[in-house]
Amino acid sequence: MRCSASHSNPRDYSSYKVQDACIIAERHGYRWIWNDGCCIDKTSNSELSEAINSMSSYYARSEVCYAYLKDVHPDPGHSRCCSASRASVWFKRGWTLQELLAPEDVVFLAWDWSIIGTKAGLSEELERITMVPQSALRLEEDIWIVSVAQRMSWAAHRATTRPEDEAYCLMGIFDINMPPLYGEGRNAFCRLQEEIMRKSIDTSLFARSVRPWHRTSGKIVASWPRDDHLEYDERSLLAPGPARFFSSRGPLPSSSVFSLCFVETEVFERQP
User: Fold this and answer.
1) What is the per-residue DSSP string for 247-267?
2) Which residue, among 163, 254, 164, has the nearest Cα to 207 in the 3D structure?
């Protein structure tokens, strides 16, 4: 309303990041841009739920997705700039995995908004950084034919601010829709796996990594990449988080002759 009354551009009241994103989109001939930082009303539970469930489809339908690597400096030596990208926090965040996978075209930008390269052009380096096969990055292979365990492994070394987001950020990668319930903690990841079981007979969901061992101060101890501090029953059928799939990187069969059949049953109480 303030912009309407003063006939000013609402972009002028946005963050510098949003303003710069609009400028580069205009240079490339686009009239509209979507940014999760300003296009989602996070005070509205219904709008937040809709956005979380739809975000992957937004990226998939976009003409291009701009990945802004604010911690990567431009370098005249293209190979050195690509190598520096490996350490970017962008590749360590859970939410950015779907930003990498869903769009047909991703353009990577350095801190000064200069172009580093595209998803297709940098696919070899991106495979080394993310463990996502070049065939999937180049859209030569549909990610839906990649096993559940291998897709989970792509998120194994990524982190989210809230524990629930470890599940919510993967919903689009498994074509799952479920209501976000902030406050449920790690139960969100269990719900995600239950929804995957309802849609798929891919038993690689249970092909989790064996606990790795390493030597510390002369003693051999076991640890996980991130969640070794959590109390967790190793006999549980479901994993507490994507970190448990960290070594499921090779191609796994999505089904086998020993496939389990997941059947939803009802329990009836016997009347006296």
Assistant:
1) T--S---S--TT---------
2) 254
pLDDT in tens, 33-90: 999 888 888 889 999 999 999 999 999 999 999 999 999 988 765 555 566 678 899 9
Which of helix, strand or coil describes residue 117? strand
Please say whether the beta carbons of 141 and 133 come within 8 A: yes
Closest CA to 33 of 56, 64, 3, 54: 64
Please report, to the nearest 10 degrees, the dihedral formed by the alpha carbons of residues 255, 92, 23, 104 taken in order: -10
Residue 195: partners with Cβ closer than 8 Å, 6 or more residues away:
174, 176, 178
pTM of the model: 0.81
Q: How far apart are CA 222 and CA 244, in angstroms?
A: 13
Please compute Rg for the chain using Cα positions: 21
Which contacts qualify for 141-148: CB closer than 8 Å, 24 or more apart? 143/101, 143/173, 144/175, 145/254, 146/251, 147/202, 147/204, 147/207, 147/248, 147/251, 147/252, 147/253, 147/254, 148/174, 148/196, 148/200, 148/202, 148/204, 148/205, 148/254
- In the chain, at which residue ranges do the beta strands (DSSP E only) sit? 65-68, 106-109, 115-118, 213-216, 219-222
Phi–psi pair at 210, nearest 5 degrees: -75, 140
Half-sphere exposure at residue 258, Cβ-oriented, CA atoms within 13 angstroms = 4
At 166, which amino acid appears?
E
Can you tell me the distance from the alpha carbon of 149 to that of 93, in angstroms, rounded to the nearest whole number? 19
Question: Tens of pLDDT along 178-208?
Answer: 999 999 999 999 999 999 999 999 989 988 7
Question: Residue 241 in contact with residue 227, Cβ under 8 Å?
Answer: yes
DSSP annotation string for 159-184: B-SSTTHHHHTTTGGGT------TT-
d(C-alpha 95, C-alpha 220), whole Å:
34
